[in-house]
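User: Structure tokens for both sequences below?

Assistant:
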Amino acid sequence: MASERPILLVEDNPDDEALTLRAFHKNRIANEVVVARDGVEALDYLFGTGAYAGRDLSVAPAVILLDLKLPRVDGLEVLRRVRADARTNLLPVVILTTSREQQDIYEAYQLGANSYIRKPVDFEKFIYAVGQLGLYWLVLNEPVDPPGL
């Protein structure tokens, strides 16, 4: 599975980051993975600010895998800002989190999340879930580029 667009993984837990990257590898997902470890870093990447100033914004992520419980700016606020900007409002955003809170699920969908997936605790189930994510978002889904990109 591969496309030329990167995956933006927004994850502050180093163990979950390592497991996700391992699951990508096991599922032969070859896309570049850009890791943002907090909400500010994710927004900087998406909008070409801060450490990512000057980044080619025409290379948008194929999918954003977004944790909710993040330092500095939480995942719901990242999602809110992604959906509020014409340059990013059509990007697929998959919430990938441990939260089972109904309020989190409701608010994520209310803000425009494309999917909400609770991270499986079992590694084999996690590998399977990431494989399904890759198959759908990187192979089957037809992305749209916002006008002007």
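Moving on to the next sequence.
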Amino acid sequence: MKPFNKLSTCGLEIAMLINKGKSLPQICTDLNIQYSTANTYKRRIFEKLSVYSTLTLSRLMSSFKIEDK
């Protein structure tokens, strides 16, 4: 099973934005969500995927060929 199947649609969208180098404030503006919501999503994404930095998230996304469509 791909680890990204653990994420919700919104979680995957936020993961892709983080992977693109967007900051949480930028993500909040793009998705029209509160900073606390974006931060919670980021924390849960990292927990579910067992990553601890944006670099390891990027490497994992690359290895599973997760790209923004």
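User: Anything stand out in the second?

Assistant: The two ends are 21 Å apart (CA to CA).
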